[in-house]
Amino acid sequence: MHTVFRISEIRKIDKNRPLYEVDLKLTSDDDQQLRRLTDRIREESSSSTGWYRMDHPSLATSYNNIGAMYKNMGDYSKALEFYEKAHQIYEKALPPNHPNLAISYGNIGQVYNNLGDYSKALEFYEKSHKIYEKALPPNHPSLATSYNNIGQVYNNMGDYAKALEFYEKAH
């Protein structure tokens, strides 16, 4: 654990130079003043009015929104940059089967699909789909969208039999 000291006394030991002697006292685990301070810091840092941590899911949502705008403008490299920033935050802040992680994988897959990198698109769409399979009931619309996305990639690759298979699952 960390160690916290209180400054009990400061004495100047040289009149010609700025040299001081500092007496420190070790705080104990039951120091009420220190406990109140740490409780207050914890309260302020976790409230919605305080500063957000740099890995807060709300920041990831902002990155996703920026990524979506770049994607809509056709700047896929910038879109990918922001989608990946969002995804890194989600990976740190959310459990591994959270639907927002699936959405994040899907966003990245969509950019790769738009870039024509179908193997990468499939990789990310399949990661998204695995999360949806675990997190959602089998008749959930997001699961159908996931099947449709995978079918779209196979369609773009010219593998129409595989595309049809996934389109039928989506249906």
Write up this protein.
- The model has no long low-confidence stretch (mean pLDDT 88).
- The protein is mainly alpha-helical.
- It has a two-stranded antiparallel sheet.
- It has 2 domains: 1-93, no CATH class; 96-170, Alpha Horseshoe (Serine Threonine Protein Phosphatase 5, Tetratricopeptide repeat).
- The longest helix is centred in the middle third of the chain and has 18 residues, at 76-93.
- The protein is 65% helix and 11% strand.
- Helix 2 runs antiparallel to helix 3 and helix 5 runs antiparallel to helix 6 (141-157).
Secondary structure elements and pairings:
Elements: E1 5-14, E2 19-26, H1 32-46, H2 57-72, H3 76-93, H4 99-115, H5 118-135, H6 141-157, H7 160-170
Antiparallel strand pairs: 1-2
In short:
This protein is mainly alpha-helical.
Q: Which short descriptors sum up this protein?
A:
two-stranded antiparallel sheet, 2 strands, 171 residues
The whole-angstrom Rg is 26 Å
Helix count, DSSP H or I runs of 4 or more residues: 7
- Helical coverage, percent range: 55-70%
Query: What's the SSE pattern?
Result: EEHHHHHHH
User: What gross morphology would you assign?
Assistant: elongated
Q: What is the tally of beta strands? A: 2
- Number of domains in the coordinates? 2
Most strands sheet:
2 strands, antiparallel
Query: What fraction of residues sit in β-strands?
Result: 5-15%
Distance between the termini: 55 Å
Low-confidence stretches: none
**What structural class results from the helix and strand content?**
mainly alpha
What strand order characterises the main sheet? Answer: 1-2
Mean pLDDT: 88
